[in-house]
Amino acid sequence: MGERARYKNIWDVVYKEKPASEQAFSKKTLVDIITHQKRITGYKNHDIDINFNRGSIANKRLFLNNIKFECCDFKGKNSNQRITFTNCSFINCYFGGTEFTHTNFNNCRFESTSLSLVSFNNCNFDDKNAFRNISHSGALTKFSETNIKATDLIFNTHNYATRNYCKTNNKKYYIEKYKSRVSTSKLSRNVLLSNASTSDDDTYYDSMKALAISSFREKVSKTFKNIYLNLKSCSELCISKKINHDSNYFFAFKALILSLILIFRCFFFPIERAMLFISGGLNGWGGSLSRCIFSGAAIVLFYSFIYQHIQIDTTSKFDNPFIESLVASLDITFLAGYTKHVTNDGDTTLELIALSNMLLGLWWYAISIPTLINKVSTSRLKWIRI
Fold this sequence. Notes:
Layout: H1 2-8, E1 26-29, H2 30-35, E2 42-44, E3 46-49, E4 62-65, E5 68-70, E6 73-77, E7 83-86, E8 89-91, E9 98-101, E10 103-106, E11 109-111, E12 119-121, E13 124-125, E14 130-132, E15 142-144, H3 150-154, H4 163-168, H5 173-196, H6 201-239, H7 245-266, H8 269-282, H9 289-310, H10 321-333, H11 338-341, H12 348-376
Parallel strand pairs: 1-3, 2-5, 3-6, 4-7, 5-8, 6-9, 7-10, 8-11, 9-12, 10-13, 11-14, 12-15
Helix pairs in contact: 5-6, 6-7, 6-8, 9-10, 9-12
């Protein structure tokens, strides 16, 4: 399977053109590598079998430390044998068809490596692992009850769908880009479900961030793909002679209108992206109530100083001007007293400032309340792995 990926899967990061003659990969077992790790610290061009026979499974965890794997193909299942890789490097490696169970990866480096067709069950990747240029298959790269920092993996995946790739392999750029984004979104959802069964809240909400961003990128790529297909359809219908010309022009006009609507929609993507990142940063992508509290206090204090400067509430019973402005800011931010402080015959500048205060307060409400509910509810079950 590794050879097939290296010479036939042109989208995979480990792909290369098959030379006329190449040295065959040497076969090794993970048991051999563990046994000789003090003497041999690097392996290149090896087929590595991670299978453990029932008779060879040890009761204790086995450790591999400071081993460098370069251009190696892994295969097999480690069954219930617990393994820990520490300070190991995987460079230009292929894991297709491999199943890891009860395996830990600590401070390991994965570079230009393919995780397509690999399964991780009850595994753990600590935060010190580094990923760079990783191939995957959204539906076939599987994580189950495995703890992994999603953003480190998702944002360092291999981008095969480049214009040069499409030109060389006679592919349509926007279609391939969309396929790539869909695959990444599927992987993000899988990682989120996997992390939902772990006990680490930070990792779970990091997965929420990865899914939100990858889903947005998928939507953008889908829009550009549809624009391309509609414009292509419009062009083909206009020159086609297979059916009635009037029908052709009608469907071509319809495709053109759809394209223009989608193009208009593209102008709002930067705004949507900015709102997504600002809103996600406000509540830590659902995981930080303290950020919501801090941002709410910042909004109230900011408008308090403005109201103090413009003297918004001259009828207040408070003698201290700052207290007056603070109460006004609280009233408007929490949507309790907007009409009390703004009248129809009031100053236009004051009305605009109060309106912006109200809208910011409404936005803060919309983000903070679900965050609070999420924190105090039991919507996510946790399994603590010992």
